[in-house]
Write a structure and sequence with these properties.
With about 260 residues, this protein is mainly α. It has eleven helices and two strands. The N and C termini lie far apart (about 110 Å).
Length: about 260
């Protein structure tokens, strides 16, 4: 009887640009540097299992034991990872599975490099056209690997249907015209959303290509977070403006009486 093929990995590549990823920077900002410990632990468990990890109610406890962090904090980190796109939010909501397009691409590449048969059929996000090229074309220890991967991605982008990616100024100008009253309060969130899409090759948090960015941002705006400072500023200025208006009315009345 043939041995069952090994699915899990004993290692996975860790990019030197890891902390430059906008999603990682957001995770650190929103949940502190301790969140990276949780995220790396999850990646280890995912690659140990193959290319995904089934959600289990005991998972926060297991991670708490291995990291020394509170279960409540771990749950918040996982939610944040889903929201900012480190894991596929769609796959988690539909299948209760933690995975991503990047995880599946790296898993496939490592299997090809180690001449291991690859069979990603369950919880699939990538398609056959996005499968990394063979190990003979990209040696696992080659110093040219990042450059070759970048070249392959650019070639793929040329072959794909051309997608309109606006300049940040055009993006913000369009948003301002659509939501003039809320624009200032949402400005930070709008810039962050543009940056996240741009860094993800103009894909959204679920790794879906954004074909019509105007429709996409209009559908996204209701879920964006307004800056608290904007509301605070408005609440501070409101009594000042009202007081100024009342004083103005009193002056007008006094002038009218004098006449």
């Amino acid at each position: 009887m043939a041995n069952k093929p090994k699915i899990g990995l004993t290692y996975f590549p860790f990019d030197t640009s890891f902390f430059a990823d906008i999603r990682v920077r957001k995770l650190i900002k929103y949940q502190s540097g301790k969140a990276i410990t949780v995220y790396i632990n999850l990646l280890c468990d995912i690659y140990k299992n193959g290319y995904h990890l089934k959600w289990d109610k005991e998972l926060p406890f297991v991670l708490s034991e291995s990291t020394g962090l509170d279960e409540a904090f771990i749950n918040e980190v996982i939610k944040c990872c889903l929201t900012i796109g480190l894991f596929s939010e769609k796959m988690f909501s539909e299948k209760q599975v933690l995975t991503s397009k990047g995880i599946q691409e790296r898993y496939t590449l490592i299997c090809k490099q180690t001449k291991r048969s690859v069979n990603i059929s369950e919880f699939l996000i990538i398609n056959s056209e996005e499968m990394p090229i063979d190990t003979e074309e990209i040696p696992i220890n080659s110093e040219d690997y990042p450059q070759r991967k970048e070249k392959k991605r650019k070639v793929k982008q040329i072959k794909e249907k051309k997608i309109e990616v606006p300049a940040l100024s055009d993006f913000l100008e369009y948003c301002k015209k659509q939501i003039p009253e809320d624009y200032e309060a949402l400005l930070f969130s709008l810039k962050a959303k543009y940056q996240a899409w741009f860094e993800n090759d103009w894909n959204d948090g679920n790794d879906n290509k954004i074909n019509n960015w105007k429709t996409k941002i209009l559908n996204t705006i209701p879920y964006l977070k307004k800056e608290k400072s904007s509301g605070k500023k408005e609440s501070i200025l409101k009594p000042i403006i009202e007081s100024r208006n009342e004083a103005h009315e009193r002056i007008k009345a006094r002038h009218a009486n004098e006449q």
